[in-house]
Structures are given as structure tokens and as C-alpha cells.
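PROTEIN DESIGN WORKSHEET
SECTION A - STRUCTURE
LENGTH: 231
C-ALPHA CELLS:
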């Protein structure tokens, strides 16, 4: 059983970064819940715990203690950036245990490819939760709340799901998680892939190509809607 510990940053009286009408503590809780439900619904042999499941304050030391006591296999701290900038970056502790570097090198590119934003790189920092956890730990900074363009993306729940999907793809790859067979498998394409497919198919149709697979009326309506050609 692979034990994944998700740490939504901040909470309660600590709102984290704020900007453009958004609060970091709420966004990271939403993303973390998506990560948990995707992992539990779609993959086998995985357990998930979270440092908080609602809007409450938890000391940094307590977050690491919870993960250590549970003997988690990995620790993933989810944050939103601020302070001028744009895009995505991730951090591990500067002591750089080999397994930790490997975790970052697996998860970071999966997130970047899923959300397609500026890649600020794989970095190190002496953050409390990275220093005090005894398993491979990574902290992700998912866009800038005080950047208007980034904030617009963060207001879209599909985009928050794409951020979560990137984390999930990384965890799945790092631990070779297997998809559940049948049951409550959720096999819908990620929002990004779905949008790319719709764009590519629409472009093809306009260029006079036949779609590779016949489209249902519903799929065609979705594509036209995306292009603003209906309503
Ligand atoms: Zn934060």
C-alpha cells in the first residue's frame, strides 16, 4: 500500500497569499481534495491522508509530525505563489536525498505538461515541512495569486482540477500505481487534454478533414460552443 500525505498549505487564521479576490488557503484545499479523490477513485493500493480537510490552522511542525507518525511514503505540500511572477515552481529540501530528487524530477514535469504555464524550475528551499519530514517531500507553488492572468486561471475549477491531475500523474508515475479495473473508475480525459482534442478536431473540420472517429451531436455541440459559434 502506498501512503500519500497531502498538505494543503495555511488554513484558519493563516490565509496564506491573497490577491485578485482569491485566498491561497481555499485554493490549495480544493486542489488537495481533487488530488485525493482522483487517487482514491481511480487507483488501487493507495491511501491518502491530509494535514487538514477543512479551513483550520495547523502549525508547520504538526504537519510534518502527522506524516512521520503515519509513515507516509511521500509528502506533498500544495501552495499558491505570490510576490510578482508567473507560472509554476517546485521545491525540495537542499539536503537533496536521492529519492527526494527523483520524486521532484518525476512530479514537476507532469504538472507543467498538464497545466502548460511558465516553468520556473525545480528548486530547493529550507522550508519547515521539507526539513522536518522523514520521507521524500516536495512543495509545489502553483501560479501567482497576485498576477492577474494567473489568478484568472485559478478562478477556473477546471484549471484547479488540471493542477490536481498533474500532481496525480506524477504520484502515479513515481510509485507505479495501477488503475482500478472497472468499478468506480473515472476515466474522463483531463480538462487540458479535452480542450486540446476539441481544438484540434474543430481545426480539422474547418480544414475539410473528416474527424478520425465519428462525432456525436453532443461532441460537435461542445466543440462549436468552445469556439463561440453557438448561442
Ligand atoms: Zn503558501
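SECTION B - SEQUENCE
RESIDUE ASSIGNMENT:
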Amino acid at each position: 500500500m502506498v501512503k500519500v500525505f497531502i498538505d494543503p498549505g495555511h488554513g484558519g487564521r493563516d490565509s496564506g497569499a491573497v490577491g485578485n479576490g482569491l485566498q491561497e488557503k481555499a485554493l490549495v484545499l480544493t486542489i488537495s481534495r481533487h488530488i485525493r479523490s482522483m487517487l482514491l477513485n481511480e487507483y488501487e493500493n493507495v491511501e491518502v491522508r491530509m494535514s487538514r480537510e477543512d479551513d483550520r490552522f495547523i502549525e508547520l511542525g504538526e504537519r510534518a509530525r502527522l506524516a512521520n507518525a503515519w509513515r507516509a511514503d511521500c509528502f506533498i505540500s500544495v501552495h499558491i505563489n505570490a510576490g510578482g511572477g508567473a507560472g509554476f515552481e517546485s521545491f525540495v529540501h537542499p539536503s537533496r536525498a536521492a529519492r527526494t530528487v527523483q520524486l521532484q524530477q518525476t512530479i514537476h514535469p507532469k504538472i507543467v505538461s498538464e497545466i502548460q504555464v511558465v516553468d520556473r524550475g525545480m528548486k530547493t528551499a529550507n522550508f519547515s515541512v521539507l526539513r522536518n519530514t522523514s520521507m521524500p517531500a516536495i512543495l509545489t507553488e502553483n501560479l501567482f495569486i497576485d498576477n492577474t492572468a494567473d489568478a484568472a486561471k485559478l478562478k477556473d475549477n477546471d484549471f484547479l482540477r488540471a493542477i490536481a491531475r498533474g500532481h496525480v500523474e506524477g504520484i502515479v508515475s513515481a510509485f507505479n500505481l495501477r488503475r482500478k479495473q472497472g468499478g468506480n473508475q473515472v476515466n474522463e480525459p483531463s480538462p487540458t487534454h479535452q480542450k486540446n482534442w476539441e481544438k484540434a478536431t474543430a481545426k480539422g473540420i474547418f480544414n475539410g478533414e473528416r474527424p478520425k472517429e465519428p462525432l456525436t451531436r453532443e461532441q460537435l455541440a461542445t466543440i462549436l460552443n468552445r469556439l463561440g459559434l453557438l448561442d
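SECTION C - NOTES
The mean pLDDT is 91.
Residues 24-42 form the longest helix (19 residues).
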